[in-house]
C-alpha cells in the first residue's frame, strides 16, 4: 500500500475555502486513479484566525504544518483586517509561516494557455511561446530586515533595512540553476547591482556558482530593465531568479502576461521536499461566498505539490491535462470568460476537471 501523505489544509479567508474544496476533490480523484493516499488536517490561519484565536498564525496551525508532508493554502486577508496593527494582520501571518517553515524559495510559473491568449492585455504574437518561472527568495531582504521609526533632523523618519548573506543567496541561486537544468537551461538573474550593495553581493555569488552549472546559460538583468523586457519579449525568459521584493513585483507582472491571475499556482520550498502550495491570487473578498471564483490556480497548485514534493509526475500531468482539456472545450469561470453570461461556477469547474482526469 502507498504510504499516506499528510496534507495540512489552510483554507483561510474570502474565496479560500471555496477554491480549496475543489482542490481536495482533485486529490480524492487522484487517490482513486493512481492509488496514492492522503490524509487531511485543517487549521486556522489569516483573518479567520485573528477573529477566532487573536493571532494570524496560531501555534497549533504551525505545529500542524510541521507535522505534515505538504501544506495546501487557499488565501488570506480582506478589508476587515486591513487597518489592524501589524501583529494582527493576515500578511504578518504569511511572512511568519514562511520564516517558521524555512520556505526560502518561492516558485511561480507563468505559462500561457493557448486558448486563453485573448484574456491577456498583451498582443498574442508577443505572448507566443511564453513559459517562464520566477524563483523568488522568500525569507530575506527588505521584508525581514530591521524596521523602525526615528526622529530625524526634519521630523519623523522610517527605516527598512535590506540584508542578504552569502548563504541565503547561494541556496536560492542553486535551486534556480537546478530548475533551469530541468527546463530550457536559461537562467536570468535579476538585481540592481548598479545601485545596491546587496545586489552586488548577489551578482558575485551567482557568478561564482555559475561554473558548477556549465549546461545552463546565464544572463544578469537589472530589475528595471527586466520589468520592461517581460512586456517586450516574455517568451525569451526561462527561469528568473531574484531577491524577495524584486520577485514580489516581477511575479505579479509575469502573472498578468497570462491575463488571468486565477490560473497561476505557486510553491514555497525549503531545503527538503516539504512545501507550501497556494494560488498566486488573493482572497477576493468582493466575490467570496458566491461560488464564482476560479479554482484552477489552487488545483494547479496541487499538481505542483505532486510534482515537487511527492514526485507524483503521473498525477501532476493528469491534473494539468485535465485543466487544459476543460479549457479547450470552452468552459470558463467569470474571470477568464469573454462572454460572461456563459461563465460557470467554482464547483462546476472543479467537477469538470475531476471528470476529465485520467490515468
Ligand atoms: C505575495 C504577497 C505577499 C508578499 C504579501 C501579502 C505579504 O504579495 O505572496 O506575493 O508580498 O510576499
Ligand atoms: Mg505579491
UniProtKB/TrEMBL annotation:
The UniProt record gives the binding positions of substrate as 98, 108, 136, 224
* Record-listed Mg(2+) binding positions: 224, 248, 252
GO terms (BP aspect): L-leucine biosynthetic process
Q: Which reaction does it catalyse?
A: (2R,3S)-3-isopropylmalate + NAD(+) = 4-methyl-2-oxopentanoate + CO2 + NADH
The note describing how and how many cofactors are bound reads:
Binds 1 Mg(2+) or Mn(2+) ion per subunit.
Sorted alphabetically, the Gene Ontology cellular component annotations on this record are: cytosol
Cofactors needed by this protein, per the record, are: Mn(2+); Mg(2+)
Please indicate which residues carry the site annotation Important for catalysis: 143, 192
Question: Where does the protein end up?
Answer: Cytoplasm
> SMART domains recorded for this chain?
Iso_dh (SM01329)
Q: What is this protein called?
A: 3-isopropylmalate dehydrogenase
Source organism of the structure: Paenibacillus darwinianus
Identify the taxonomic lineage of the organism of origin.
Answer: Bacteria, Bacillati, Bacillota, Bacilli, Bacillales
Amino acid at each position: 500500500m502507498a504510504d499516506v501523505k499528510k496534507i495540512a489544509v489552510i483554507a483561510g479567508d474570502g474565496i479560500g475555502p471555496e477554491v480549496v474544496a475543489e482542490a481536495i476533490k482533485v486529490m480524492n480523484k487522484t487517490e482513486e486513479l493512481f492509488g496514492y493516499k492522503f490524509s487531511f488536517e485543517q487549521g486556522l490561519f489569516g483573518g479567520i484566525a485573528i477573529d477566532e484565536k487573536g493571532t494570524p498564525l496560531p501555534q497549533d496551525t504551525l505545529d500542524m504544518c510541521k507535522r505534515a508532508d505538504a501544506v495546501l493554502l487557499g488565501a488570506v486577508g480582506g478589508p476587515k483586517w486591513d487597518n489592524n496593527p501589524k501583529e494582527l494582520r493576515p500578511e504578518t501571518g504569511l511572512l511568519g509561516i514562511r520564516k517558521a517553515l524555512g520556505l526560502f524559495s518561492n516558485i511561480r510559473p507563468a505559462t500561457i494557455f493557448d486558448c486563453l491568449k485573448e484574456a491577456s492585455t498583451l498582443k498574442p504574437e508577443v505572448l507566443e511561446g511564453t513559459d517562464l518561472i520566477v524563483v523568488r527568495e522568500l525569507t530575506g531582504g527588505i521584508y525581514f530586515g530591521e524596521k523602525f521609526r526615528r526622529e530625524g533632523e526634519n521630523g519623523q523618519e522610517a527605516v527598512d533595512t535590506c540584508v542578504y548573506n552569502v548563504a541565503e543567496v547561494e541556496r536560492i541561486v542553486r535551486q534556480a540553476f537546478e530548475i533551469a537544468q530541468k527546463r530550457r537551461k536559461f537562467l536570468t538573474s535579476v538585481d540592481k547591482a548598479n545601485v545596491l550593495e546587496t545586489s552586488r553581493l548577489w551578482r558575485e555569488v551567482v557568478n561564482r556558482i555559475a561554473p558548477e552549472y556549465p549546461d545552463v546559460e546565464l544572463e544578469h538583468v537589472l530589475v528595471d530593465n527586466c520589468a520592461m523586457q517581460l512586456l517586450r519579449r516574455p517568451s525569451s525568459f526561462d527561469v528568473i531568479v531574484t531577491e524577495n521584493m524584486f520577485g514580489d513585483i516581477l511575479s505579479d507582472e509575469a502573472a498578468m502576461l497570462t491575463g488571468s491571475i486565477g490560473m497561476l499556482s505557486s510553491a514555497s520550498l525549503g531545503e527538503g521536499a516539504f512545501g507550501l502550495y497556494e494560488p498566486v491570487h488573493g482572497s477576493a473578498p468582493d466575490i467570496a461566498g458566491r461560488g464564482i471564483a476560479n479554482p484552477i490556480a489552487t488545483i494547479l497548485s496541487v499538481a505542483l505539490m505532486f510534482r515537487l514534493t511527492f514526485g507524483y509526475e503521473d498525477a501532476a500531468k493528469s491534473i494539468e491535462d485535465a485543466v487544459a482539456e476543460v479549457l479547450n472545450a470552452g468552459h470558463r469561470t467569470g474571470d477568464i470568460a469573454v462572454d460572461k453570461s456563459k461563465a460557470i461556477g467554482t464547483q462546476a469547474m472543479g467537477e469538470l476537471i475531476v471528470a476529465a482526469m485520467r490515468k
